Amino acid sequence: MLTHIFSSIFLSLVVSAEYRVYQYMVAPKDPGRTPSSHVITSTLDPVSYIAYHGGNDALRVDLLKTWMCKGHTGKKDICSDPLKKLQNDEENP
């Protein structure tokens, strides 16, 4: 029993959380609505994002890119795009 408790504590310290971030170009299906399109960043996968924001009849969602973030998502900002950081590092050596 004591071994099981120590194993659980050790595993909880070793395991790290991560989550996926998605960047989309979102546009309303109704051409009269504004804005016509915009880029959003979300932790919702494409199917969930569309369902949560009105469904296929309301939105057109195109996936631009995705990346992984380390850590817990609770009450934190979404981590930055690592590709953008690499590009900035190359431009400013």
Structure, explained:
This protein has three helices and three strands; from the N terminus they run αββαβα. The chain has 93 residues and is of the alpha+beta class. It has one domain. It is flat. The chain starts with a helix and ends with a helix.
Topology summary:
Layout: H1 2-14, E1 18-28, E2 38-42, H2 46-52, E3 59-70, H3 82-91
Antiparallel strand pairs: 1-2, 1-3
Descriptive key words:
93 residues, alpha+beta, 3 helices, flat
Strand order of the largest sheet: 2-1-3
Whole-angstrom Rg: 19 Å
Percent in helix: 25-40%
| Biggest beta sheet summary | 3 strands, antiparallel
Q: Please state the overall shape, judged from the principal axes of the Cα atoms.
A: flat
Look at the helices and sheets and give the structural class.
alpha+beta
Secondary-structure element string: HEEHEH
Mean pLDDT, nearest integer?
Answer: 82
Q: How many β-strand runs? A: 3
Kindly report how far apart the N and C termini lie: 55 Å
Q: How many H/I helical runs? A: 3
- Report strand %: 25-35%
- Which parts are unreliable, with pLDDT below 50 for 5 consecutive residues or more? none
Number of domains: 1
